[in-house]
Request: fold
Amino acid sequence: MQDYWLNHAFLLGSQWVWFHPQTRRLDEIPRDPERVQATMNRLWPNSRIIISKAMQRELTFEVPPSAADDASIRGAKIAESIVEVTRVEHDWEKLREEWYWTAWKGGTAVVCVDWDPKAGTAVLPGDADSGAEPVMGGDTVETVLSIAEVAVEPGVRDAERASWWIKCEALPPSTVMGSYGLSALPAADASAGMTPFQRKLLSEHAGGSSDDSADLTLVLTYYERPNPNRPDGAIAVVVGNEIVGGGVKPWPFPFTDHLNFALGCETPIETKWAGETVLTMARPVQVAYNASWSSIIEHMKNAGNARLAVPQSSIDLMEHFTDLPGEQVPYPDGLAHPEWISPAQMPAWWIEQPVRLREEMDDIMGVHDISRGEAPVNIESGYGLSVLAEQDTTPVGKLVKTSAVVWSKVATMCLQLYAANVMTTREAIVRTPSQPPTTAHWTGADLKGQLRATVPMESVLPRNKAAMAALAEKLVTMGLITTFEQFATIAEVPGYRSLIDRVNPDTAKARRENHMMSLGRPAVPESFDKHDIHLNELNDYCKSPDYEMLDDSVKTIFEDHRQAHVTMAAEEAGSMRARAAVDPVLAAVPDGYGSTTLAPAEVNAGMSPAGTPPEEPGAEAPIEPAPPM
Reply:
């Protein structure tokens, strides 16, 4: 916890601080107006680069069905939709970034999952006349906590499977009073006995202002899962010396094998449930970096000015100096002429010391020139840069992997709470890029036990854009990529979905039709469709796992749609052939629907030199009229 608050202060730029070992308090080092205390914050930009890389890709979830029957497959699909809606509505991307910063500062970060019966959608509307409040269906609440806000059973090595834990929050007294129905404002005990600097940090950490006079109340929530000593478990909220919120309540969660939080460490320690962070290792180097720059700046302040040495008897002449070029300056005979006194020169190692400390700090944090978009010396090829970029993201990849495990557990706990508590029908609007939104109606029973959500590692690990583009270009050269859609997908071209809509609208329309048909809604081919593109997209979708999970009635819709495209394509081909029989030029004229026209060589293929169809074998030659007499 001491390292967490020190790292927190250093990232905010307050780096001339110290932690008193006896009083256990964090305070600022007193300022001396005669001395320079420079702060060259290298930890903040390096940390921002690391967190930005970790947040490069959004969270995606999968719920693999536990069985191959239709009910399990449908339940897994509904569960995926619920998790996606929860991710968007609860702003998990913001919570995920908060989790990264918390783990980066303290080495350990926790995501607590609670059930709020007063949240969610209204099950029964309220009555304004009688003053009855609406009955809410409830919803999950996810909270990111730091190592300074969590206490677990002493001696455990797996905190998630401990018997109990305590959540510590510092909230404004008015908020505590309204949330728990207190009759009077509680005491501001969270900030009692703190130094002004500590009060400022605590207020900022709690989401308030930077005013160091802000009062906060300590709220402790005790969670104990069912165990032999307490079979029903317990939850209690303590403010001051009283249990509030209705007293001690039983364990409300459907799971009993673990506590209601997911924990992740930046650098795990094999003998402890809490971890470490490389930011703690870089902090002493930052202290030396600031001291080195402070010494250099003090030297520049005291010995950096050049001075002019003149004889004592020439002082009166100095009053008559002007700024005329080539001015003559007399001085007494027999005396040395005035000359400049050069400032003292600092040793080379002294000047180079901040550079060495900066490089040491970058090595500890895993941030180098390639991280900042600067090409290293003597590395000019794109392949070499991509290899260095991949190696540079290795430390970030470990943190991203830990985050994926944490959010997989969070999504699983949310699904378990929904399955146990949602008894009325709810709607989940699922928005798929480049597809119309769909509505899924569900209750907890519709999940059919499909409650295990996972975050695929390949979907969240940062990728080098230049390397992906080079791979796509190589696949084009090998002939494995033949369409723009394939290239844009593999290269991850920014905004490639909108580009596909513009470059190849038939492909976009075909994919929308496939999506609608998968929901059981028939799609009618149009005369302006390019049937070959629609058939290719249809066949690609029919080879996917999503098609295999569809009901036979829905698959019939796909087959009817395919046959309609084939029939219309044959009709268009016959129409062009008929027009070519009348006049070959007509086959090359657009028909107004964007149908494929025939080139002159294609029109004449299989035609006689006169432009008429060839005679079939065995056909009788037409009788020519007799010449006039």
